[in-house]
Amino acid sequence: MASLYKKQSGVYYLSLCYDGQRLARSLGTRSYDVAKRIRLKVESNLLNEILYGPVERKRKLTFKELAREYLDHDEHAWAESTKIRNGQLLRGYLEKGLPSNPTTRAMMIRVVNACNRWGFKRDLITHLNIIPGGYEWESRHRVFNDEELNTLFENVRNEDFNQFVRFAYYTGARSGEIRILKRPQLHCDYILVHGKTGVRVIKINSQARRIIDSREQLWSYRKYFIPNKFKKECRRLGIRDARFHDLRRTFGYNLIKQGKPIYEVSKLLGHSSVTTTERHYAPLLTTEIEDFML
């Protein structure tokens, strides 16, 4: 008979009694839900140990070794961008621990927990260590007002980067989708790019088309040049709490304010569903509701 119990430390244990013998094992988690999910596997291992004696245990992996195995395994079917991002988060965790930024912290926790679950399921680690807080983050709702946009468009230094800033706003594209563009990607009124979910279409309006037509060469920027340069320019211009991605959020916000159906805005942003768009923009649009009486 097996029983689940919790020690003063908060960690759950499983105890198994069979034919007068009793064995107990730590489940390595303080979560009751996680303990229930892994109970059957641990119970089976304990029963085998009672019946056939302890098995010779192979050396368990350190988290650094586990992370390497996790990233190199070919079963995940990740997009290349997902593999790169997971690698960055796991290396960041190993080198510096959890970051202070709540959004990045939550994302890192989810990746670390997924890695640990994967390793525990394959008996590569002894304990399943789940870090709480993987779904606790602060959504960012910063958008630029008209004055800030005009300041950016008229005063960002370096005409090449100035055009890139305006092109990003007019298309609502992510920086990673347009920082390196090739002419074969350009079509009459759209661009084919590699987005977060694979190849997607970015609509080009007349404002974005004028910028493209005025250029002999398209952009080829390193990944971290864009956010660093943009923040530097915003500080110089006195625009506070600004990030490059806020241009994309402002693009969607202004379209919805102008009356563009949210379904169309969702398609323009390349969101996986309208629900995603609503989740991002509902807090912003609440402030636009006109006065009402009850």
What distance lies between the first and last C-alpha atoms, to the nearest angstrom?
61 Å
What is the C-alpha radius of gyration, as a whole number of Å?
Answer: 26 Å
Sketch the topology as an H/E string, one letter per element: EEEHHHHHHHEEHHHHH
Q: Largest sheet at a glance?
A: 3 strands, antiparallel
- Which strand order spans the largest sheet, edge to edge or round the barrel? 1-2-3
CATH homologous superfamily placement of the largest domain: Intergrase catalytic core
Q: What is the CATH third-level topology name of the largest domain?
A: hpI Integrase, Chain A
* SS-based class: mainly alpha
Oligomeric state of the chains in view = single chain
Strand content: 5-15%
Average of pLDDT:
87
Q: CATH class of the largest domain, anyone?
A: Mainly Alpha
Indicate the percent of residues in helices.
40-55%
Count of separate DSSP helical elements: 12
- Write the CATH architecture name of the largest domain: Orthogonal Bundle
Provide structural commentary.
The protein is mainly alpha-helical and 294 residues long. It has 3 domains: 2-52, no CATH class; 63-121, no CATH class; 146-286, Orthogonal Bundle (hpI Integrase, Chain A). It is built from 12 helices and 5 strands. A hairpin with a 2-residue loop joins strand 4 and strand 5. It is elongated. The mean pLDDT is 87.
